[in-house]
Structure prediction request, 212 residues.
Amino acid sequence: MESFVESYEKEFWAEEYPPKVKAMFEAVLELFASGKGLNSLTVSEITAKAGIGKGTAYEYFSTKEEIIAGALEYEGKKHVKMIAELIESERSFREIIMTGFALMDSVFGKYRGFAVIIKILHEDTTNGGEMLTEMKKHEECFGIVKQLVEKVAKLARKENLIQETDYYKIQTAIISQVMGYATYITYQGIYARVDSEKAKEVAYENMIKLLN
Prediction:
C-alpha cells in the first residue's frame, strides 16, 4: 500500500521545481525576510537576487504575484512533508505537535514567517487584492493539510489522549492552538515574560483540553 509520504510526493512533488524557479522562490523569501515589502518588491530585484536574467522570470510566470504565491506554497510544502514523514515514522502525537511548533520557530527565525505573510496580505488590500487572487489558485494545498490533521487526530485517539471524533471540532481545536502559537512568536515582545517552551506547552495542553 502506498504510504502517506509517497502519496504526498506523487501529488505535490511529481515534478521537481526547475532550478531557476527554486532560485526565484528562495530569492522572494530572502527579500521579504530582509524587510522588503510587497508593493516595493520588483521582478528585477527577485531575478537579480536569484542570479538570473529578468526575462527568464517570464518564461515561467506572468506576474510578480504569481512568483510570490509560488514561493509561499514552496516553503509551506517543505514543512508539510516534514510533518508527514514524522507521522509515517510513528512518532507520538506530542512529538509531532512539538516538532510542528519547532518548525514554526525555524520559519520565523529565517523569514520572520507569519509576520511576512501578515505583511503581504495587509499590503495586498491596498493594491487591488492581486496577491489574494493568485494565492487562491493554490487552494489544493489545503487538502493535504486536512489529511495531516486527520492522521494526527487518529494518532491521538490511538494513544487515548483525546475523545473527540467530530472532524470539524478536531480541526478547529488543533488549528486554533497552532495559530495561538503563531501569534506568540510573531509578537514575542508583547509576551516578554513567557518563554517559547512555556508557550508550546500551553498550546499543547489547550489542544488536549479542547479535544476532550
